[in-house]
Design a protein that fits this description.
The protein has 498 residues and is of the alpha+beta class. The chain has three domains: 2-173, Beta-Lactamase (2-Layer Sandwich); 231-319, Orthogonal Bundle (Helix Hairpins), CATH 1.10.287; 333-479, Histidine kinase-like ATPase, C-terminal domain (Heat Shock Protein 90, 2-Layer Sandwich). 52% of the residues lie in helices and 16% in strands. It is built from ten helices and twelve strands. The chain has helices spanning 2-5, 8-58, 68-80, 111-119, 166-216, 231-288, 294-325, 337-347, 370-387, 447-457, and strands spanning 88-93, 96-99, 124-130, 133-143, 154-164, 333-336, 354-357, 365-368, 392-400, 406-413, 461-466, 472-479. It has a five-stranded antiparallel β-sheet, sandwiched between helices. Strands 7-9-10-12-11 form a five-stranded mixed β-sheet. Strands 6-8 form a two-stranded antiparallel sheet. The radius of gyration is 52 Å and the shape is rod-shaped. The model is unreliable at 146-151, 436-441 and 491-498 (pLDDT under 50). Residues 266-482 form the Histidine kinase domain.
């Protein structure tokens, strides 16, 4: 839900709708204010002009000073002269007052307005709202007539008028209704325009997203069609240039990697023949070393040890080359896993060095490649003996995966100093050796990499961790149930680590 609300389409539509709403409301408010002012101003000017003209016309017809009957007749006469039938008039002369409507309290007239009329000589007006009804109240003093303005003076007669503004309020209400009705189509139009704009903007964005995902999946020949010359077109053009450069760089790296693999494979293959001869010679020299003088015997043993290491390195390189070339085949067989692990330890003289926790014979069986399982266990145990600390523990047990399938778990734990955090991500890298986390390796640096490849070939996983009580532990998880295929072939160029 939150992801949908944060999408670019929704944000564009909301932005357009907000802009349209603000523009519509602002325009409507300004229009309403101006129209309302115009309506009320026109009504006000008309009423004041009519009122002033009516008063000036009728005053000379009445005696002065007036009596109450005169004031009552005067007020009634003015009220009858209005353009509507709703004029209410109050005439005041000193303590006398009379209204056009009998017993009219004239509540709309405020003391402040009355004081302004009493003390001034100009017409005063104000709008008053009572009981949700708006009225215009006008007050004016009657002055004596003279030839000159200076001769005019207050007569003491004050006349007040109240006119309901029902008609004007109707005009204003109609205007508000019209503005409200215009707002809905404006918002609908804004949303429609927003959807069209979003569609135009999001189309190249979606294309860019699909192209980026395609690049991430390895299809480096993906390109975008460039339309127009706007910013999105520039972005598409830049993406195409970047993709082309990336494709070229990756192709070059793959050519270099393939060349390096071929070189390693060729060198390893070419070294096997002379190494075989050297190994044969060193075997003979080892048998005769006891009869040689000390210096010569030491040199012979050194040559024999280094020849053995070189042979192991060449064999490891050949194995890695087969993985990289996709030529490593998996030959499955139904075997007793515990018995296979015991044979691995016994063949290398580790049966009494490594502490084991293995099931009874025949309890745990599975379809694995016996030779590759031997390599996995031998490499992990050798790594623990060389770089960890005694005692070393080998444990085998069975578990179920998330789908209920059978899995074999092999754990090899040592009692050394463990693996440093900076080294942990690289323990299965090829040729990686650490001088700080553990003692310096005398091997090729390929043992754990070969282990990871063999485990992956089985469809399993291998991971390294540190135990809370100290030391490192390597855990291998292998599925015990495979299809009926006779073998599985490694994919080329995969995985320097688990």
């Amino acid at each position: 839900m939150l992801r949908a609300l944060s999408s670019l389409r929704v944000r564009l539509v909301v932005a357009f709708a907000l802009v349209a709403a603000v523009a519509t409301v602002t325009t409507g408010a300004l229009t309403f204010r101006e129209a309302r002012t115009g309506v009320l101003q026109q009504s006000q000017d008309t009423v004041i002009e009519d009122f002033r003209e009516r008063v000036n016309t009728l005053v000379p017809n009445y005696r002065f000073p007036p009596a109450r009957p005169d004031l009552e007749a005067f007020a009634a006469d003015i009220a009858r002269g209005g353009r509507s039938d709703n004029w209410r008039v109050l005439a005041v002369y000193r303590e006398l007052s009379a209204t056009s409507v009998p017993a009219d309290s004239f509540r709309e007239l405020s003391p402040a307005m009355r004081e302004a009329v009493h003390s001034g000589s100009a017409t005063v007006f104000q709008r008053v709202t009572r009981d949700a009804r708006s009225s215009l109240v006008v007050g004016m003093p009657v002055t004596f007539a003279g030839q000159h303005a200076a001769d005019r003076g207050p007569s003491g007669l004050e006349v007040y008028l109240t006119v309901p503004q029902t008609e004007e309020q109707g005009y204003v209400d109609a205007l508000v209704t019209a503005i409200e009705r215009a707002t809905v189509p404006a918002l609908a139009l804004a949303v429609l325009l927003a959807l069209l704009a979003a569609r135009g903007v999001l189309r190249p964005v979606r294309a860019l997203r699909r192209a980026t995902r395609s690049i991430a999946e390895g299809r480096l020949d993906t390109r975008l069609k460039v339309h127009g010359s706007d910013e999105l077109a520039d972005l598409s053009h830049t993406f195409n240039e970047t993709a082309a450069a990336l494709e070229e760089s990756v192709a070059e790296l793959r050519r270099m990697e393939a060349g390096a693999r071929r070189f390693a494979a060729d060198v390893s293959h070419e070294l096997r023949t002379p190494l075989a001869a050297m190994s044969a010679v060193t075997d003979v020299l080892d048998e005769d070393a006891a009869g040689l003088d000390d210096d010569t015997a030491m040199a012979v043993r050194l040559i024999s040890e280094e020849t053995t290491k070189l042979a192991d390195l060449v064999n490891d390189l050949m194995e890695i080359s087969r993985f990289d070339a996709g030529a490593a085949a998996l030959h499955l067989d139904d075997i007793d896993l515990a018995e296979s692990l015991r044979r691995t330890l016994a063949s290398r003289g580790w049966l009494h060095t490594v502490h084991t926790s293995l099931p009874e014979p025949g309890v745990l069986r599975g379809r694995v490649d016996p030779r590759r399982l031997d390599v996995v266990v031998a490499n992990l145990v050798a790594n623990a003996l060389k770089h960890g600390g005694l005692p070393v523990h080998l444990r085998l047990y069975e578990q179920e995966d998330a789908e209920g399938g059978r899995q074999a778990v092999i754990e090899v734990a040592d009692s050394g100093d463990g693996i440093e955090d900076g080294v942990m991500p690289h323990v299965f890298d090829r040729f990686y050796k650490s001088d700080t986390a553990r003692t310096r390796s005398e091997g090729s640096g390929l043992g754990l990499a070969i282990t990871a490849e063999n485990v992956r070939l089985h469809g399993g996983t291998v991971r390294a961790a540190n135990r809370p009580q100290g030391g490192a532990v390597f855990t291998v998880v292998l599925p015990l149930e495979h299809d009926d295929a006779a073998q599985r072939t490694a994919r080329p160029g995969k995985g320097d680590r688990s």
